[in-house]
Amino acid sequence: MESISSVSLMASMTPDTALKLFENGAVLIIAGVPPGTEFGIDQWSFLVGENFRGVKMIPEGVHFVYCASQGPYGDVAPRVGFVHYFRRGEIIVREWDNEKEELKPRVHDDVEGEIGRIRENLKNLDRYLAPYDYDGLAKWKNLTGNITAETVQRHSPDCGVIRNTVELMSCPDEDRPRGDSPLSIANSSRLSKIRSLMNEEELLPNLKTVPGSAPHFTTLPPRCPKDASPADISLHHMDSIAAIDLLFENGQTEAIFEEIQFSFILFLCGHSVESLNHWRKILLLLSNSEKAIEKYRSFYRNYLTALQYQLPELPVELMEQTESNMVYQDVRRLLLNSYQAGITSAAESLEKSLRGTLLWRFENLFEEDPEDLPTVVDVD
């Protein structure tokens, strides 16, 4: 094997600790991956060598596994992977698909028998298995701590494969939405700008994904209903409580929080564009309501904590503190609404964290509403 940094980790472990992790941890066996292929599990990756056969000592929980082929001139293909909730002591077997250049489930007549033989022979396989990178486990748990096996099953694509983009099918031109008529737009340029902001997908081609290839994400309610009156449009633009109530209906706050974490790791590890877009839309919606923070205090406290770990993992382009960086602008709005809604401790913690990790500053946060000062004590 080549470039496996966890060798130093194993050297620092006591024999008893290493044995316990080996006996209780899950194992991923892979076959046929060409040498030089980039292999990754969670946020740890390396180039595989001739003798690489998988990963051992995988802690129980959700993990993202991927490969990326290397071309003859050093070019790297997009990552292709899968998410699995590994159980204690579980053995998962995958094999390389040369045609698609990705890992696929092992399929033959005696899968269970093969797993049994692998389990009996694990000690002999030990030297071919890379130890899981426990140095990064605490960070990974902060990003995924609420994701359950049910979360993975609920949101994973039917095909089981995570790609950086999903396959799209175009539709006939006559099926594409046309948006507002020129006459209605001319009636109020201000309202039309608000409509285009809140229902921006109406302006995009109506492209459909190839069935089974896309993650199953919740359809987010529009911030402004299409049939809203001009007065209601302004109200929905000022505060998204109505849309957030729809998002959280039937007590779905916990499920939405799990979905936020799940969509983020699909982007972080799999570079999934659709997942980042979904995560981004949720941030935009949740940031735009002081009333929702007052109503769903517990959720928002957890959400602000989650953002402390997620935001520093974003691409460099989304880390700049500029007026054009809408992630920064949404977080700024979220902080303002959080202070005004009374969850001061969580807001202060996020602000302090981002000041240290991203060097973000939020000066003059209350300049638009100078009389609205943050409360000193959390309101339960």
Q: Could you report the average pLDDT, rounded to the nearest whole number?
A: 85
Number of strands: 12
Q: For the record, what CATH class of the largest domain applies?
A: Mainly Alpha
Secondary-structure element order, as H and E? HHEEEEEEEEHHEHHEEHHEHHHHHHHH
- Considering DSSP H and I runs of 4 or more, what fraction of the residues is helical? 40-55%
User: Radius of gyration, rounded?
Assistant: 24 Å
Read across the widest sheet, the strand sequence of neighbours is 8-7-1-4-9
Can you tell me the number of structural domains? 3
Number of helices: 16
Structural class estimated from helices and strands: alpha+beta
Query: Quaternary status of these chains?
Result: single chain
Q: Would you give the CATH topology of the largest domain?
A: Serine Threonine Protein Phosphatase 5, Tetratricopeptide repeat
The CA-CA distance between the termini, in Å, is 54 Å
- Poorly predicted runs are 1-8, 177-200, 370-377
CATH architecture term of the largest domain? Alpha Horseshoe
Shape: globular
Proportion of residues in β-strands? 5-15%
Major β-sheet annotation? 5 strands, mixed
Can you describe this structure?
By secondary structure, the protein is α+β, with helices and mostly antiparallel strands. It folds into three domains: 15-145, Substrate Binding Domain Of DNAk, Chain A, domain 1; 170-206, no CATH class; 217-358, Serine Threonine Protein Phosphatase 5, Tetratricopeptide repeat. 42% of the residues lie in helices and 14% in strands. The protein is built from 16 helices and twelve strands. The chain has helices at residues 6-12, 15-24, 111-120, 122-125, 137-144, 149-155, 182-187, 189-198, 230-238, 241-247, 253-270, 273-287, 290-295, 297-310, 326-341, 344-357; strands at 26-31, 38-41, 44-47, 54-58, 61-68, 80-86, 91-97, 102-105, 129-131, 162-163, 168-169, 208-209. The strands form three sheets. The protein has a five-stranded mixed beta sheet. Helix 11 packs parallel to helix 14 and helix 12 (273-287) packs parallel to helix 15. The longest helix is centred in the last third of the chain and has 18 residues, at 253-270.
